[in-house]
Amino acid sequence: MSILLKDGHFDPYAEVRRFTDMHFPMPGAYGATAMFVGTMRDYNEGSVVRGLTLEHYPGMTERHLEVICGEATQRWSLLAALIVHRIGEVQPGEDIVLVAAWSAHRAEAFDACRFMMEDLKSKAPFWKKERLEAGARWVSYNTAGTTELT
Q1: Are 126 and 65 in contact (CB under 8 A)?
Q2: What is the pLDDT along the chain (150 residues), one digit of tens a residue?
Q3: Other beta carbons within 10 Å of 27
Q4: Is 2-22+35-133 in CATH node 3.90.1170.40?
Q5: Cα–Cα distance between 147 and 149 in angstroms, integer?
Q6: What's the half-sphere exposure (Cβ side, CA atoms, 13 Å) at 90?
Q7: Cα–Cα distance, 58 to 47 (Å, whole number)
Q8: Cβ–Cβ under 8 Å, residues 49 and 42
Q9: Is the pTM value of this prediction over 0.85?
């Protein structure tokens, strides 16, 4: 499992390829890869958003992401898990988060990927400050999701 915080642009597809090449050098080592890429929208709560500052609590944030990956790996027998998350200044259209899971079978990869993303979105210590035309505001809640998986 691996977690990475990036202060600046990243290419999620290159990150997945790099991780796969590093952890699975032999063909056939896994049967499924599921990934989610979250991208910054230019609107939220009825307002145009010009940019975003993503703050985190150093040490605590990384630890929480490691716990998420560890729990997913145990619950779904994953071969590997990866979370990459932006911090700092983000512009509309830029990728904010990558969550990926590798397993022998697709169901485990899908379920684990969803679990990691929903836990990250609802519990990880990140704070968002949006830049609007009329000033700035802190985002008080995240978009709804679910962590209930069967």
Answers
A1: no
A2: 899 999 999 999 999 999 999 999 988 999 999 999 999 999 999 999 999 999 999 999 999 999 999 999 999 999 999 999 999 999 999 999 999 999 999 999 999 999 999 999 999 999 999 999 989 999 987 666 654 554
A3: 6
A4: yes
A5: 6
A6: 27
A7: 30
A8: yes
A9: yes
